[in-house]
Amino acid sequence: MLEEINLKNIKNKYKIIPKKYLGQNFIFDQNILNKIISNILPIKNFNIIEIGPGPGGLTLAILKNRPKKIILIEKDSSFCKIINNILTEYGDIESNLIIDDFLNFNLKKYISTNTKIVSNLPYYLSTQILLKILPFNDGIKEVMFTFQKEVADRIISQPNSKNYSRLSVIVQSVCDIKKRQNLPAKIFYPVPKVSSTVLTFVKKKKIIINNFKSLEELTKLAFNKRRKSIKNSLKNVSNISYFLRELNIEDKLRPEQISVDEFCKLANLIYNFKK
Question: What integer pLDDT is reported at residue 99 of this predicted model?
Fold first, then answer.
């Protein structure tokens, strides 16, 4: 049975050798994979998009929970055989395996009314993949990604902490985020040098930012010189002193001392002024 898949028989049968240049680290313990998927239940009646299924361990955990449909986007074609074997076992569930690089993939084309997105992300691409799907459209009901712990800490960090960054502001501006579980390095193959964290994301009910791109541009300027005051780091923004005064933001504050809402309001003010 597919549920009895383990590291030894997968490696031998399918000759799986993780590719370092693709950042491949796999979990083969089905109990752990089932627990990861439990963080995003229910799956029944939802369309699931899985990014980078690899040898299909997480895919199997998803299928056991009977999604309405599953779409798998995998860059490495060497996993086609094992994934197709898993999908055949659950042939009554509509499925679509797409061999493509997710960063070049037209995601909007595949998002329907009730969609959830999951992935155990390659560490080196995790931030790029998350930013690609932000802000969520109304069809995306929930997202669950596994990150390197350091990246997860930055995403959920609050102002006035060393981990608070541009990434914190951008993601928190449009998402409510929950830390679900920590994953020790030893459960992965090959064993990475760092541990991981599972986060879930849902679209914020009240989003302040009017133009997401304007927030991306503003935070890039601000955090590029995070040790400087906000006034100095944004000195190339016309009328920045006026905008800061309008929002009662002290111009001597550093970027990491300014809240997500304040960054959103500042981006709105600048964007509206330019229009």
Answer: 95
